[in-house]
Amino acid sequence: MSSDVRVIPVDELTSVEADLELEALAREIKDHDQRYYQDDAPLVTDAEYDALRRRNEAIEKRFPLSVRPDSPTNRVGAAPVSGFGKIKHAKPMLSLGNVFDEEELQDFIDSIRRFLKELSDNPDVPLEMVAEPKIDGLSISLRYEHGKLVQAATRGDGVEGEDVTANARHVTDIPLELPAGVPEVLEVRGEVYMAKKDFLALNERNEAQGGKVFANPRNAAAGSLRQLDSKITADRPLKFFAYAYGDVSTTSWDTHGAFIDLLKAWGFSVNPYTRVCNGIDEIMAHYDTIGEHRAELDYDIDGVVYKVNRLDWQDRLGFVSRAPRWAIAHKFPAEKAITILNDITIQVGRTGVLTPVAELEPITVGGVVVSRATLHNVDYIRDLDIRVGDHVEIQRAGDVIPQVLQVVDDGGHDDRDTYIFPTKCPVCDSHAIREEGEAATRCTGGLVCAAQAHERLKHFVSRNAFDIEGMGGKHVVAFFDDGLIKTPGDIFRLTPEMLKGREGWKDKSIDNLMAAINAKRTIEMPRFVFALGIQQVGQATARLLAKQYGSMAALRGAMDGARVIGSEQLEELLNIDGIGASMAKDIVEFFAEERNNAVLDDLLSNVTVEDFEAPDTDGSPVAGKTVVFTGTLETMSRGEAKAKAESLGAKVSGSVSKKTDYVVAGPGAGSKEKKARELGLTVLSEQEWVDLTS
Ligand code: IVH
Fold it and tell me: Do 376 and 349 lie in a common domain?
């Protein structure tokens, strides 16, 4: 089985793929609900069902405009979203990256060993990891001050959660008071869950009383914890496993394992399958052990989490976006099934990408009905020689999109046609072409293609872009189709009069929409750049551009200059770590295009884009400075040097120019150091750099 066929992480989905998957998920979850409620005999495990719902929620969160009227989120288990106070986490609550097999796990371990120079230099130095079950509940952060529970918050979006303090007091295993000697401030994090037997009993009781029947233990736990009436929570048997800490005033422990022991001593429940492992063999053995016991555990788990044991290493490894470099979740394997490919259809996305979609004979995979899956692109279909009528194997891994893995029986398909990828856009009939070196086939219709225009506008108002509340995807499409908005600037020219009399719009909702639009007449630069929908420019790249150039005027000026090959501006753009040649090309081309500039000028006359302010780096001496590392570093790997510099607000560049502030040169530094000296730049030794930054 090809291990590189992977379900798409939510943050890499295209909007078309998101729409498809949400459609499939809505149907699948509904199917399952029916089976669950009517037959009382679900075909899917609770954890699998739960994984689906979480995937659905994650996609909806990222593509709010794609939320369907029949979204499962609106039906079962939807706890009150308001009513609880909000709490900003003192330390963000992170998520975890995933691996699915031993090879990926080995890559993860290798990346840690590369990052920590003493480990890459000395392969014999052990790297201990703590392996523990991944509990399928909901994470919560408990804040103790002077040993007393003062606050409990759900994870929320990781930055801000809901205040569930009153309810947390009713959770078994959450101590209200801790023994003497605990740090003055101590945030303990872990998972609130409901035992399977308690879940079944609760449902039985509720059913008899005509109350709410929960789909799975996780929903039951979430629904129970997020009760505005804490008397109800008190009545529900919730439990808690502790596995991490957030804000703490002092740390007397120096490994995760030692912290787990302290948690036990302080009266918390920790999972009995928590083990310190040395090397991948021990890790895999423990993974297998946990997998073997999974069915008999009285709570749901969906994988195993591995964490670097040494905390000083954890600190140095730090984070990439929202996940630590020092921990990973090893998910339990995917479910597979075989079905017939009935048809291949095409969907057109925001940037004109034509995405082929497998229309499948509906099939149950791990208890969930799957009828559509993305086929990615023309190569994927050709390489697997997928033809309509084939029996294909599909896979649905834990919480991800169904994939066609391979053709298992082509039934002698040679007499059937190979799939011919369209050469015209199915929506606007413009030519669809595939540029050399690109996987995607694109509609060249640009502004004339209604599908692209719809998707571009949807993207513009979406959650991570302008985030215009109340302007859902269906409104954008309707406004566009009726000629109210053609370009983003038109949104800011909408008037109440234009909306009056439209179906579904009342005075109140019109007022709300106007207010939501007005609220976005000033916007942060990263959001604005992201909203433009430049090819390949996601949130992370938009942020990089904002950070590098600081203002829209500077960005546009620089991109204008960067059209000249060999220009300083192009070099500066290419020097941004995370921006490669192909991305740079898309960015420069976007700003070179006259029509885009017209749209941009129009937009900027309606919207104020705030200049980018670098996050507070506490008076760091290198904040805003550009640094180049060259030669061999003795005390840290390149990766660590770069991560550290960036955490202090510096920009790390790969090549030396007039704009470089510091060149850190180790032994073996060559042309870069020479160039730095010629330009009269500050050249530091590694030690001087360390002194400057610590
Ligand atoms: S550690 C920085 N350990 O998994 C590490 N998380 O996918 C933060 N989870 O939001 C989490 N069991 O809700 C950790 N033993 C465990 C876990 C665990 C379940 C959940 C947690 C987190 C999610 C990340």
Answer: yes
The DSSP letter of residue 72 is G
Phi, psi at 517, each rounded to 5°: -70, -45
Q: Whole-angstrom Cα distance, residue 158 to residue 89?
A: 8
Whether residue 79 is contained in a domain is answered as no
Ligand 1 proximal residues by C-beta, below 6 Å = 94-96, 132, 134-135, 139, 155, 191, 243-244, 305, 324, 327, 329
CA 136 to chain centre: 18
Tens of pLDDT, residue by residue over 518-568, are: 999 999 999 999 999 998 898 889 989 998 999 999 999 999 999 999 999
Q: What pLDDT is attached to residue 615?
A: 66
Q: Which of 520, 553, 578 is the last residue of a domain?
A: 520
Chain-centre distance for alpha carbon 473: 21
**297 located within any domain:** yes
- Cβ 51 vs Cβ 193: under 8 Å: no
Burial (CB count within 10 angstroms: exposed 0-12, middle 13-18, buried 19+), residue 574: middle
Confidence of residue 72 (pLDDT cuts 50, 70, 90): confident
Q: 656 with 676: CB under 8 angstroms?
A: yes
Are 218 and 118 contained in the same domain? yes
Domain membership of residue 20 as a residue range: 10-70+334-433
Q: What is the full DSSP assignment across 104-152?
A: HHHHHHHHHHHHSHHHHH-TTS--EEEEEEEE-SEEEEEEEETTEEEEE
pLDDT at 609 over 80: yes
| Phi and psi torsions of 541, nearest 5° | -70, -40
- pTM, to two decimals: 0.61
* Mutation choice for ligand 1 from 135, 241, 326, CB with most ligand atoms inside 8 A: 135
Which residue's CA is the nearest one to ligand 1's atom 12?
Answer: 134
In this prediction, residue 307 carries a pLDDT of: 98
Residue 256 falls inside a structural domain: yes
Q: Considering only residues 217 and 452, tell me which one the structure prediction assigns the higher pLDDT.
A: 452
What percent of the chain has a predicted confidence (pLDDT) above 90? Answer: 57
CATH number at residue 140: 3.30.470.30
Q: What is the pLDDT of residues 653-689, one digit of tens each?
A: 888 988 899 999 999 888 899 999 999 999 999 999 9
CA angle 605, 606, 607 (to 5 degrees): 100
Given the residues 61, 88, 91, 134, select the one marked as catalytic.
Answer: 134
Mean pLDDT of the chain: 88
